[in-house]
Amino acid sequence: MTLPNGKAPHPDTQRPPMNQPQASPDRRTGLGFETNTQQDTSTSTEGSNGTPRGPQSELDEVIIAVMGATGSGKSTFINTACGSEELEVSASLFSCTSEVQLSHPFVLDGRRVRLIDTPGFDDTTKSDTDILKMIAMFLSSAYERGKTLAGVIYVHRISDHRMGGVSTRNFRMFRRLCGDGALKNVVIVTNMWNEVKEDLGKRREHELRTQDTFFKPVLDEGAVMVRHNHTKESAHRVLGYLIHKDPTILQVVREISIEKKGIDETAAGEEINKVLIAQAKAHRKQMEELLQEHKDALREKDEQARREIEEDRRKLEAEMKRNQLEAQKLADANFEKFQKEREAYEKKVKEDMEKAEKRRLADLEQLKEEARKNAAGSTEWLKMQADYQQRLDDIRDREHQAALNAKDQQATLLIEIEKGRRQELELQHQKQLQEARWQEQNSALNQKISDLESRVAQKDSGGGCTIC
Ligand SMILES: Nc1nc2c(ncn2[C@@H]2O[C@H](COP(=O)(O)OP(=O)(O)OP(=O)(O)O)[C@@H](O)[C@H]2O)c(=O)[nH]1
Ligand SMILES: [Mg+2]
């Protein structure tokens, strides 16, 4: 494994920061990929030996598939990487993603990236053959439209107590889908680290890396194993291991699109067949044992045991029937039938996409109409607001003017009062002066009178006329 700078990184080392995801036009056709006329032929990305030409140009879309057991966190990883909630996620025991889905494109480290979400092989509602057919249809159709994979991410919960039957079966199917040739483009992602104590997680990680029954064989062939801590940065770091890689072809795609094999003849199909044969053998053995136990119960007249054995037998028969149907379904998925199914699937996807596009256009039209109405409404509202503001301004102007007037009036009044007060003071002053003057004149007059009286008195007492 080498990074774009040519150095071999430690799987857990941080890559330099990358560009944030960006929205891009949602024009989809066919299987959800945008039309790329330059690449729209079955051989455009393929060399003479059937291997893809690489490296991918800056304009090419980088497509990465995400696989793993049900509930391992595939859809969550994709949502985290895209920074969206577009894929359904569930904490229930039932499988959540039951179809192959394509994420919206986003830009990372200068590349336009799309992730493919896949259902796990231990799906609670669909058989392994159904899942294999779905994945094979999607990937081979995409390949024949010139869309190759930059890599595959396999999600594994570090919180799993052990690599049990389901995980082992899932991983075995994953290996058959990829083939050894694509392992250099595989990243095994361990997640749910916050669900375990660090020491325990590290021990499990070490076992997964070093045990032949776990991931060691694929790591030896060039796959890498990295931790994911549930953040966008961590998801982008994981994708950083793949986005600059030369594209690869998965074994199942090569088998179908180039070697023209039926699903039943692919390595993954053969793996399912092997499991079905082993199960059929085990079922036959169980049935023989039950028949023997049934005979014993009859002989011993043990009614309770007989009823329990018959119940077990019914359950086993139902399982055997399911197994036979599954084997039949796999046998029916030969090349011709699979091609027909794929054509029907592509047609349906195309119709769905066209319907979705029509719906999108109708929604867009409705949004535009609402926007127009809102714009009209907002013009009206703006006008009302302007009127209101004008009225408010007028009132304020009037109030201001009135205040100014009142001030003027008050000032005039004060001046008048002051004037009046001064006049009053002046009058008082003059009055006082007048009074003082009168008093002065009075006292002078009184003096004269008393002088006259004293002279009259002198004359009366024998003196001459002083007046004449
Ligand atoms: N703690 C923790 N929980 C996670 C992480 N990734 C996913 N989960 C939770 O695991 C549960 C299953 O996640 P999904 O993304 O639906 O898993 P899936 O692999 O897509 O499942 P299917 O679609 O059923 O195959 C959800 O409850 C997630 O919230 C993680 O990194 N850490
Ligand atoms: Mg899912």
From TrEMBL:
<dbReference type="GO" id="GO:0005525">
    <property type="term" value="F:GTP binding"/>
</dbReference>
<dbReference type="Pfam" id="PF04548">
    <property type="entry name" value="AIG1"/>
</dbReference>
<dbReference type="InterPro" id="IPR027417">
    <property type="entry name" value="P-loop_NTPase"/>
</dbReference>
<feature type="coiled-coil region">
    <location>
        <begin position="415"/>
        <end position="455"/>
    </location>
</feature>
<dbReference type="InterPro" id="IPR006703">
    <property type="entry name" value="G_AIG1"/>
</dbReference>
<feature type="domain" description="AIG1-type G">
    <location>
        <begin position="64"/>
        <end position="230"/>
    </location>
</feature>
<protein>
    <recommendedName>
        <fullName>AIG1-type G domain-containing protein</fullName>
    </recommendedName>
</protein>
<keyword id="KW-0342">GTP-binding</keyword>
<feature type="region of interest" description="Disordered">
    <location>
        <begin position="1"/>
        <end position="56"/>
    </location>
</feature>
<feature type="coiled-coil region">
    <location>
        <begin position="273"/>
        <end position="374"/>
    </location>
</feature>
<feature type="compositionally biased region" description="Polar residues">
    <location>
        <begin position="34"/>
        <end position="51"/>
    </location>
</feature>
<dbReference type="InterPro" id="IPR045058">
    <property type="entry name" value="GIMA/IAN/Toc"/>
</dbReference>
<keyword id="KW-0175">Coiled coil</keyword>
<keyword id="KW-0547">Nucleotide-binding</keyword>
